[in-house]
Design goal:
Mean pLDDT: 83
Strand content: 15-25%
Low-confidence stretches: 1-15
Structural class: alpha+beta
Number of helices: 11
Shape: elongated
Radius of gyration: 24 Å
């Protein structure tokens, strides 16, 4: 076997041992609340739920509740599903023959005999639950830990950088970017990091006077404290943190909720911008990761603390919510697309059309998984 692949698989084997528990912790939280969204709205709509599973494959443990739902943990912990009465598979695909033989009593509890509105609500409830989970997590973090802040002061400027060309000087304090107030150095980093190649107008305070500077962040590969490479916009500014520079702003629950919503929207916005950038060629697709990358990041973040790991769960919850809304058959968004067509036509698509759609969706999902896993192995080999 070539040395490249030997190194990759050795790294993979050693790394995942230390990452498996944080990975399962993060993924289980996200998957549980996603499926709980489907489950609760289905119960509200009068649909009989046959199975609530965390994971796929053979059952490891489980129990039946008083409504007849089988709650179980399955052997492959890479997702989960809720199976409704009338479903032929975990992907909620129906069988016209089976549905046609149902009695009136059975039809009352069948998912596929509900009107298109309740079916769409049940399907959409999963991704919505992911977004709500993220908002709740961010709100709790802001409530109990506050909002850390460091003045957006310029201490050093890299020679020949975008900041140097724009006329930044040591001691400048950035107060706004494109008219938007900047409360901390991390706020400035976040905006600059996501706006590479775009000219930004910086309002800075220098020697007690306000002035404006124009700078265009450069796209560079930057490594985080764990050695993971990220392509971000960079000005070439350094902030030295001294004792007392970092302050924590305590916020009330209402403000924390607002910050939680804003943080959730920021992740949504940046994720969609990245995906759009991949299709337009502005972003590289090698940042797309799968379960291996998630496991690696989970293990790394777990070394920081539980709060950081829970924060990662919120980010992952948003990502999974967005992914499931893509109009790809087999995902929740694909089902919603079928229901939209049904609402317009007044009748559902034929069994053959739906079957072809699910096959195409399965192919796309499998290709994405293979591509993400390939990226993960390359990433491990380079680390």
């Amino acid at each position: 076997m070539p040395e490249f692949f030997l190194h990759s698989f050795n790294t993979l084997g050693h790394g995942l041992i230390g990452y498996i528990i944080p990975f399962l912790f993060v993924l289980t939280i996200v998957v549980f609340f996603h499926e709980l969204g489907h489950f609760l709205v289905a119960r509200w709509a009068g649909v009989k739920v046959l199975t609530f599973s965390l994971g796929f494959g053979p059952e490891l443990a489980g129990f039946n509740d008083r409504h007849g739902t089988r709650w179980k943990i399955s052997a492959i912990p890479l997702g989960g599903y809720v199976k409704f009465f009338g479903d032929e598979s975990e992907a909620s695909t129906p069988s016209s023959e089976t549905l046609s033989r149902m009695t009136e009593e059975e039809r009352a509890g069948s998912f596929h005999h509900k009107k298109v509105g309740p079916r769409a609500a049940i399907v959409a409830a999963g991704p919505i639950a992911n977004f709500l989970l993220a908002i709740v997590i961010f709100t709790c973090l802001f409530t109990f830990f506050g909002k850390p802040s460091t003045t957006a002061r310029v201490d050093q400027i890299e020679a020949g950088s975008a900041a140097a060309r724009a006329g930044f000087q040591a001691g400048d304090v950035v107060t706004a970017i494109d008219g938007k107030r900047i409360g901390s150095f991390s706020d400035m980093q976040r905006i600059v990091g996501t706006r590479a190649g775009e000219e930004l107008v910086f309002t800075v305070e220098r020697n007690g006077s306000a002035m404006q500077l124009r700078a265009t962040p450069e796209l560079r590969e930057v490594k985080d404290p764990f050695g993971n490479a990220h392509r971000l916009g960079v000005l070439g500014i350094t902030r030295k943190t001294a004792a007392g520079d970092v302050t924590t702003e305590r916020v009330d629950p209402a403000t924390a909720l607002l910050l939680g919503v804003k943080e959730t929207w920021f992740v949504v916005d940046r994720t969609l911008a990245y995906i759009g950038g991949v299709f337009t060629g502005r972003e590289a697709a090698d940042q797309v990761g799968g379960p291996i990358r998630i496991a690696q990041i989970s293990g790394q973040v777990a070394t920081i603390g539980v709060a950081a790991l829970v924060h990662l769960a919120a980010v992952l919850s948003i990502s999974i919510g967005l992914l499931n809304l893509f109009p790809v058959p087999l995902l929740d968004g694909g089902h919603l697309l079928f229901y939209a067509v049904e609402a317009v036509r007044g009748r559902p698509l034929s069994d053959r059309a739906q079957e072809m759609g699910f096959r195409i969706g399965l192919g796309l999902v499998l290709m994405l998984m293979v591509f993400a896993t390939y990226n993960d192995i390359l990433h491990l080999a380079a680390s």
